[in-house]
User: Fold this.
Amino acid sequence: MQGQDPGHEQGRAPPKRKQKRPGEPSGREETSAIRELLQEFFDQQLRLDLRRQEMMERHAQEWLFFEGQWRQAMQRIEQERLMLEQQWAEREEQRRAREEARAERRDAILTSLLTRLLQGDL
Assistant:
């Protein structure tokens, strides 16, 4: 009893080591396969990240382009508004000038009439 392995009971055969089946990869081969899978995964992630970054850059460029177009459109609208406002101010000034000229003619006519009345010409 003392000469036997401590993990064995008397009368039992010693445990068999796991025998390798044909076609089953060894530990190194398994490690190599796992590393290869991980490398493929990391490469795929890198490609995805690069593609995502390219898409984001393209989106940013498109955004800048559209923002530039929007700014130009807003500037055109603002210029058009300023022109219309200036035209309105000019028309308003002309209207006031005409109104003032009419008022002056009216005042001149009334003054003339009052003068004639006071002088007894009428």
